[in-house]
Amino acid sequence: QKTTMIRNKRTKKKIQLNKKAKTEIEKYPLVEVRWLDICSDSSWISMKDTMSMPLPVCNTKGHLLSQAKGITRIFGDYSSNEKGNIEEIGNVTIIPNSVIVDIKKIS
Predict the structure, then answer these.
(1) Of 24, 30, 94, 103, whose Cβ has the fewest other Cβ atoms within 10 Å?
(2) Torsion-angle region of residue 69: left (phi > 0), alpha (psi -120 to 50) or beta?
(3) Each residue of 19-47: pLDDT tens digit?
(4) 87 Cβ contact partners less than 8 Å away, ≥ 6 residues apart
(5) Bridging pattern class, strands 57-68 and 100-105
(6) Cα 75 from Cα 35, distance rounded (Å)
(7) pLDDT for 5 beyond 60
(8) Residue 13 pLDDT class (50, 70, 90 cuts)
(9) Under 8 Å between Cβ of 105 and 29
């Protein structure tokens, strides 16, 4: 059984936050991030098969909170007050930039 590997091109793509947004949530663009995850297997497996095991590619969609110091931070949920200001965020995913295959804005 032949498997294909996805190579991490170490994307340096940086998505800007919208500083001119009319509402606070509009500051944080919706993005989709494709990233490589860790894979482990506790069964007995040959060294040859181990060498051909691919890394899983995961997809995360949400609002981009930040891309700084080697880390991309995404949130999926938020609560806001009467004025529309974000008070808390939830469904947070923190991804090391070194495992990101691609990141793009969702229209």
Answers:
(1) 94
(2) left
(3) 888 889 999 999 999 999 999 989 999 99
(4) 78, 79, 80, 81
(5) unpaired
(6) 16
(7) no
(8) confident
(9) yes
